[in-house]
Specification:
The complex is a heterodimer of chains A (196) and B (110). Chain A contains 10 helices and no strands. Chain A has 196 residues and is mainly α. In chain A, helix 2 crosses helix 4 and helix 2 packs across helix 7. Chain B has 110 residues and is mainly α. The radius of gyration of chain B is 39 Å and the shape is elongated. The N and C termini of chain B lie far apart (90 Å). Classes of the chains: A mainly alpha (196), B mainly alpha (110). The interface between A and B is large, with 54 and 39 residues.
Chain lengths: 196, 110
């Protein structure tokens, strides 16, 4: 957690204040960066770039949002720029591990473990993974995500829908008998408003 | 949308296969959401490298200006541009004064 006092000290450019901010927050920043870019080395570049932006923008932080939320937006933005610069947003036309029916990772009725979910996330195409991480892990809105990725809200929702379906299929396997496809197609979106 | 949801809910109430599918989606969403509390361990020395990166870049801008000022070629170019500007301004002033002098002389002779 970053308290108000530390932020003020950083804004006054007190010696050691920004170091303390980095020390306290780098785990969260690195974690988000790894989850977005899917590579530990690239995540370090993203984290460094994000902190440079935080350092330059701290004077403009007015405290309307929580500091962590503000910082996550900067990290997400840095990650998106990083991914764009590597032209990795195009969805691959064929992904053998996804086209093949995956072996279920979790037993029906069991909650998947963190490692299983992490593995499932890692097989998603970059664009889908970014959307599901920002929306379902960090609580960004589809509008915010669209703004950061430079795509429409509709495109974000579509990627989210596909990502959730792929995650579910990877974790639980695809039912051998595909019935009621129309209904199942709507469940990935329906579940968000009816978490139960 | 509410109408569609209503239809869907009626179907879910009577179809164990689709309600099971919905339960799996809920599990997935909960499991994905819980990742927020699970940090990925950063590599050792990351805070130090971050600070080096930040300080390195923040120092770059003043250093770059000083570096340019120290470059003899840049100084010569700046002096040439400055000289050309001063010359152009001097010519402009002379031309302006001469044209005003001609106008004043014409008025006196008229």
């Amino acid at each position: 957690m970053v308290d108000r006092e530390l932020i003020e000290r950083c804004r006054r450019q007190e010696p050691g204040a920004f170091d303390e901010l980095v020390e306290r927050t780098h785990r969260q920043v690195y974690t988000l960066a790894v989850r977005l870019v899917g590579d530990r080395y690239e995540a370090e570049d993203v984290a460094q770039d994000a902190y440079l932006r935080v350092h330059r923008s701290l004077r403009g932080f007015r405290g309307d949002a929580r500091f962590e939320t503000w910082m996550y937006r900067i990290v997400a933005n840095a990650a998106m720029n990083h991914l764009r610069s590597r032209r990795r947003f195009g969805e691959p036309s064929a992904e053998p591990e996804l086209l093949a029916r995956p072996e279920p990772q979790a037993d029906p009725g069991d909650s998947p473990s963190h490692d299983e979910v992490q593995d499932a996330l890692s097989i998603l195409p970059v664009g889908q993974r970014a959307v599901v991480v920002l929306k379902d892990v960090y609580g960004f809105t589809c509008e915010e995500i669209g703004g950061q990725m430079g795509v429409s809200t509709g495109a974000v929702k579509l990627r989210l829908h596909r990502a959730r379906r792929r995650l579910k299929d990877h974790l639980y396997g695809v039912a051998a008998e595909e019935r009621h496809e129309g209904v199942k197609e709507r469940l990935a979106s329906y579940v968000e408003d009816h978490r139960g | 949308m509410a109408e569609f949801d209503g239809e869907l809910e009626v179907h879910l109430a009577t179809c164990p296969e689709c309600s099971g599918e919905l339960a799996r989606y809920r599990e997935v969403l909960m499991a994905v959401g819980s990742l927020r509390d699970v940090p990925v361990e950063p590599p050792p020395g990351l805070p130090h490298r971050i600070m080096a990166h930040v300080h390195g870049h923040e120092a770059l801008w003043p250093d770059r200006i000083l570096g340019l000022a120290r470059d003899r070629r840049v100084r010569v170019a700046a002096a040439s541009v400055g000289g050309a500007l001063v010359g152009a301004a001097a010519i402009g002033i002379i031309w302006w004064r001469a044209s005003h002098r001609d106008v004043a002389r014409d008025r006196l002779t008229a």
